[in-house]
Every structure is written in C-alpha cells, then in structure tokens.
C-alpha cells in the first residue's frame, strides 16, 4: 500500500501531510513536540479500511514555521477547519493526542456535524496540566510575552532543554533519530523564534467553555489514556468519559504520556474498537 506525502497551502501557510489507504476518512493529529511520525505504528493497519490523513501541524515537522501567524486556540481550531475543507474531509473520524486532542475537542464542539467519531488520547483537553508542568508552561508563556525574555529564548538552549526532558523516553517511545526529527528544528534560530511566537499565544489555564460543552457532544467518543502520564493526569480522562454522553474510556496501565508510541498495539486496538462502534455508548474497560 503506497504512502503518499504531500504539501498543501492552508490560510497562506505550507503544510505537510501523509495520506494512505481508502475508505471512510480518518484524520490523526499529533501532539507536542511531535509530527505525523508519532502514528507510524498505527497508520498501516488503520489504512486497510480507512483513508488515513496524518498532518504535521502548522509549525511542526516539515510544515511551515511562521512567527507571523497567530496561534491562539480558536484561530488554531479554525485552521483545522480550513485544513479539512482543503482536503475535502466533510464527514470524518478525528483522533488527537496531546495538543492534537486539545484542538480536536474544540473542533468537535464547533463542528459536530462534520465528525463521525472523536478520539482523545492523553491530552490536557478541557482542563490543563499537572501542577509542576502547569507552572513550567505558564512560565514559558510569561517569558514569551515579554520582549527581552523572548529574545533570550530565541538565542537560548531550547533544543538542549527539550532533549534533556525527552531523552528519558528513548528508547521506550522513540529512538534517537525520531527524537531528533521531533526537536531538531530547535537547533535553528528561526525554529526557536517560532517556538517563542507559539507560546506567546498559548493559554495554559483550563477552558471552561470546553468543559461546559462536553455534555452536548453526541458522537461516539473514545478516551484513551496511559495512567502513568506525568503531564496530563487521568482525572482529565475520567472527567471526559463521565461528561461526554457517548464516551468510552480505555485506561492503559503503566503507560505514560506518549501512549501512541509507548503502547502502540494497545492504542491501535482501542482505535479499531472505536472505529467499529455503533452510535451507542460502550462500557469502561482496561486493556
């Protein structure tokens, strides 16, 4: 089965994406700081029955990094809408991990009629991060919004800081080459400038409007979570499953934040079960 990699322009920004297979469309959104490669273990199997599209989100991977574009939440959700329109995805399945799950939830609440199903994997979703990571992210946002501190970030050791943090996930989630693919762009000043621009617009606080909209979601929803996540606690997962009427919760015991790569077979099984679901809820279970 051929893997097709493409570039398209959406809203004036160049975006890279992988496409494979035919059938009911499935859009896969990666998290921070990854790109479409985080789905490498699942794409081949999912593409046997679906048209799978896995983009590098704007700013990540091979997609354009422009410090001139806004990255506030609803602008990003609207970019997702523009992307799906450009790709001709009118009624599709949407799965997102981490930042991708954050955007997917906002999209589902704004454009529920465009979705067949929704899956959220280890994401801040409607809430936010664990206390330690919340403070770190809030500090990054604070610095990015102040010119002198932002300049220091542009010239600072962002690549090495990311590598030091993520090195703990080698080889459990990704290898050295994959880690370099995820963060190598931070070696360059243009990449660090874009990183600063991204966090200038990012809001770390919980989003009350997303929480209030959970009860209105009526599409089959999968909430898939590694319960050893140091960034996004399982309380988020259980709250999503409790509040979304047609949600199924799958807990992955002992699995961390990068569940898609750390427990690829378990995530694949959960996604396949989700894609096979009828329009009724399913019970909670562990894998």
TrEMBL record:
Q: Which Pfam families match?
A: Abhydrolase_1
Q: Where is the AB hydrolase-1 domain?
A: 25-264
Using the record for this protein, list the coiled-coil segments as residue ranges, or answer none. none
| Listed PANTHER family | HYDROLASE, PUTATIVE (AFU_ORTHOLOGUE AFUA_2G14860)-RELATED, MONOACYLGLYCEROL LIPASE
The name this protein carries in UniProt is Haloalkane dehalogenase
Task: Report the source organism.
Answer: Alloalcanivorax balearicus MACL04
């Amino acid at each position: 089965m051929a893997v097709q990699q493409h570039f398209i322009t959406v809203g004036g920004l160049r975006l890279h994406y992988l496409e494979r297979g035919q059938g009911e469309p499935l859009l896969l959104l990666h998290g921070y700081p990854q790109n479409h490669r985080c789905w490498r273990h699942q794409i081949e199997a999912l593409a046997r029955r679906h048209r799978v599209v896995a983009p590098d989100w704007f700013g990540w991977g091979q997609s354009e990094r422009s410090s001139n574009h806004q990255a506030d939440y609803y602008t990003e959700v609207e970019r997702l809408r523009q992307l799906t329109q450009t790709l001709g995805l009118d009624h599709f399945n949407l799965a997102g991990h981490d930042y991708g799950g954050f955007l997917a939830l906002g999209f589902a609440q704004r454009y529920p009629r465009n979705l067949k199903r929704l899956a959220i994997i280890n994401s801040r979703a409607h809430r936010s991060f664990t206390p330690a990571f919340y403070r770190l992210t809030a500090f990054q946002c604070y610095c990015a919004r102040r010119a002198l501190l932002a300049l220091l970030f542009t010239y600072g050791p962002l690549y090495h800081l990311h590598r030091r943090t993520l090195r703990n996930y080698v080889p459990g989630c990704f290898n050295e080459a994959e880690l370099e693919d995820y963060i190598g762009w931070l070696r360059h000043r243009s990449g660090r400038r874009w990183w600063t621009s991204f966090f200038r617009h990012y809001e770390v606080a919980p989003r009350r409007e997303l929480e209030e909209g959970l009860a209105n979601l009526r599409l089959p929803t999968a909430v898939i979570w590694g319960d050893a996540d140091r960034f996004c606690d399982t309380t988020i997962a259980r709250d999503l499953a409790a509040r979304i009427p047609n949600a199924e919760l799958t807990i992955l015991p002992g699995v961390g934040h990068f569940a898609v790569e750390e427990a690829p077979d378990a995530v694949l099984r959960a996604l396949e079960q989700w894609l096979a679901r009828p329009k009724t809820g399913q019970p909670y279970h562990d894998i």
